[in-house]
Amino acid sequence: MRDAPSPASPTVFELRRAFDAAFADPPPSPRAIPEYVLAIGLAGDPYALRLTEVAGLFKDRRVTLLPGPLPQFLGVAGIQGRLVPVYDLRRLLGYAPNTNPHWLALILAPEPLGLAFDSFEGQFTAPRERFAAAPAGGPRHLSQVVRTAEILRPIVDVTSVVEAIRSQAGPDEPAKER
Q: Which of 75, 79, 100, 114 is deepest in the core (most CB within 10 A)?
């Protein structure tokens, strides 16, 4: 024999109905899903990185300076138990070099690499309607901009940056047979 419903039962029934109804609703459109963005600064200018392209963010990570074939190459840093090449994002975007950047974004391209930059200004979400194509003829590696309440932030196209680094470094040497 069942007991009479308790006073809390209508709430339980309402929660169950709302839960079941959520599966009947269509999924949100891709434009309704917000995108997570890291707000960064380079030489005092605002920029952004898509959080989906960043595997880690490190402050004051020691970079061992090394000579290299590219002027953007700073050296290597120990990250998560491996040595990762680090590149100066300022230089990649056409600014004067920064020999002592405070922040490093770990990028998991085909091979992990670090992009060093000046300042981390926060993380935010933005609906997709706040994203637009970057102005034509603008700097390299900037394909979109995102509008925040305060400013317009160019978004660094990480794929373009990685491709530029790889093409400037030259083709990989074939493995030698033993």
A: 114
Taking residues 62-86, report their average pLDDT: 93
Q: What is the pTM of this model?
A: 0.77
- Structure tokens of 145? 């901009």
Q: Which domains does the chain have, with CATH numbers?
A: 32-167 (2.40.50.180)
Q: How far is CA 148 from CA 19, 36, 56, 84, 125, in A?
A: 33, 12, 23, 32, 9
End-to-end CA distance of the chain: give it in Å, rounded.
Answer: 80
Name, in order, each residue with C-beta under 8 angstroms of 72's C-beta and a sequence gap of 6 or more: 87, 88, 91, 92, 165
Tokens of 110: 């085909």
